Amino acid sequence: MPQYPSHKVQAALDAVRHELYEASSKFPPFNSAHEGAAVIKEEFDELWEAVKGKQFSKQDQYVEAVQVAAMAVRFMLDCGPGLYDTR
């Protein structure tokens, strides 16, 4: 099992948390799992383009990966089994 420095893990999680809060302040919760999955796919497609494209930097790829992760967390919160339901 790979070991990552805890400060790098924390920085990545902080970036995901920030993106989650940003998106949540701009857009309402997912209406369904279908909508949530579609948003995750759209974000993943953008990551894939950043990975394939020679004009994209590692920073561009990182930003897109953060967006994928944030939308996955949002899916868990909005469409999950209700463990985190605050509505």
Offer a concise description of the structure.
The protein has 87 residues and is mainly α. The chain has helices at residues 6-26, 33-52, 58-79.
Structure description:
The chain has 87 residues and is mainly alpha-helical. The protein has helices spanning 6-26, 33-52, 58-79. It has one domain (6-79). Helix content is 72%, strand content 0%. The longest helix has 22 residues, at 58-79.
Low-pLDDT windows of residues: none
Biggest beta sheet attributes? none
The beta-strand count equals 0
Order of helices and strands: HHH
- Which structural class matches the secondary elements? mainly alpha
Query: How many structural units, i.e. domains?
Result: 1
Tell me the distance between the termini: 37 Å
Instruction: Give the averaged pLDDT, no decimals.
Output: 93
Choose one word for the global shape. globular
Features:
globular; 3 helices; single chain; 87 residues
Secondary structure blueprint with pairings:
Layout: H1 6-26, H2 33-52, H3 58-79
